[in-house]
Each structure stands twice: as structure tokens, then as C-alpha cells.
Amino acid sequence: xxxxxxxxxxxxxxxxxxxxxxxxxxxxxxxxxxxxxxxxxxxxxxxxxxxxxxxxxxxxxxxxxxxxxxxxxxxxxxxxxxxxxxxxxxxxxxxxxxxxxxxxxxxxxxxxxxxxxxxxxxxxxxxxxxxxxxxxxxxxxxxxxxxxxxxxxxxxxxxxxxxxxxxxxxxxxxxxxxxxxxxxxxxxxxxxxxxxxxxxxxxxxxxxxxxxxxxxxxxxxxxxxxxxxxxxxxxxxxxxxxxxxxxxxxxxxxxxxxxxxxxxxxxxxxxxxxxxxxxxxxxxxxxxx
Length: 289
Known about the structure:
Elements: H1 2-17, H2 34-43, E1 48-51, H3 58-68, E2 73-77, H4 84-88, E3 89-94, E4 97-102, H5 104-111, E5 114-118, H6 125-128, E6 140-143, E7 148-151, E8 157-162, H7 175-178, E9 182-185, H8 191-202, H9 207-220, H10 234-245, H11 250-259, H12 266-280
Parallel strand pairs: 1-8, 1-9, 2-5, 5-8
Antiparallel strand pairs: 3-4, 6-7
């Protein structure tokens, strides 16, 4: 039974991946079963949690899927000052009148959009509680200040993301919130796929430079558990490639994109640059462009 289900889901994913390319769709390179997973979750309107390190493609994946499913996407970047009113709405003074203004979550609930709460763990705990009624059979959003309860549009879907490796014991999602979602764990793509992603995003990059850039970034990730709080992201590799395409010397581009943003510690920075030097060598290749 389990094998039949897995085969069926893989078949769905192949159909999606092999579908004619949409030039307007945000570029995303499928890696494993994430496309089939999301399609199944959307079909059942299940709330989804995307877990994974910074810059591994969670947001791009969601943008890609929203386009494929032809649904509007409402994105909220969560932060520690985000209040429930910021999400659901508030009363505002306009002239001598007090009028209600819907927040992004309320608009998405009414319009049947996909609402994406990015880095949900950064929001205050009392703020995240407001999404609970949307994540079970009720699919409702209470507007306490208006004394109303909004039934979610049939096409509404709630998606959250966070980086579990970055959080502390004092800053994490409560189990009562986590268990309300189906989840998918994202990792950095394989080296071959990552080269394809960086090459596509940068465009026209010399093949040997591309190979060295990705190899250096991937090796630098080994320092994640030896002092670095964050590993070199795929996004950082794209930035490094873009700097090289703009005429910047490879070592300088790597220092600006792969080293300086990750650490202020001189020893860690030196260790990262040793990795970069090992791949690009003392004599640098001519930058593309």
C-alpha cells in the first residue's frame, strides 16, 4: 500500500516536471518529492510548514508552486514586533470616521490566496496563536476586534516556514502549533543541481568558474558545526556568480558573497578564504563578462 502511494506521488511529480515550460513561472529546480507533496497538500487544503536552512529555496519553491497552481501569493515576513493586528487588521481613523482595514492574512482568507508566513518563529507567540483556527477543520479566522468570524475561501491555503537549525530553546514553535501542519524538510540541493541553479540564475557564467564557486561554497558548509551560525546558502553562491559576471575577481567576489556576510570572526573568515583559495588557486581565472 505504501509503495503504491509513493509510486503514485512520484508519477504526479514527473507529470509536473515534464509539463511544458512556462516562461513566466519563477525558476525552481525540483529536487525530490516536494512538488508532489505540495500538490497533494493543496488538493486537500492542508496547512503546510516548510523547514530548512536559510537560502535553500523555500520561498522560491512556494512562488513557483503558487504560479503553477494559479493562486495569488500573499507573503508576510515575520519579525519580533509583528502583532496579531498586523496580520488580521485594525480600526483606523479616516477623517472623523473609524474604518476597518483588513490585514494581509484576512485578505488572503477572503480572496482564496496562499498566505505565506515567512520565518514564523520570529513572530511573537501571542501572534501565532491567531492562525490556529485556520489550521484545523474549522478553517476560520476570528476577528475579535470586530466580533466576527471569517470562513476561509475554499481555495485558501496557509504556509509557514522556518529554519530549525537557527532557533534556540527559547525561540521555537510550540508543539501545539507544529502539529497543526504537514511539513517538508528542505536541504541544500545536490552539487549538480546546485550548479544548474546558480548557472541559470547568473546566466552566461564560465563553466569552470561556476564549478569552482559551487564546490568552494559546499565545502565551506562543513564549518557550520564548527563556529559558523549559518552555512553558505545557494543564494550566496548566486550573488558570488553575479559579482564575477560584473567583472569582479573571483577571490574578491567570494570574499564579498561567501565570507564577509557569514562571519565577523577573523579565524573563521580566514578558514573560509583558505577554502576559496584552494579552489581558485593563487592565479585567478579570468572573470566572465
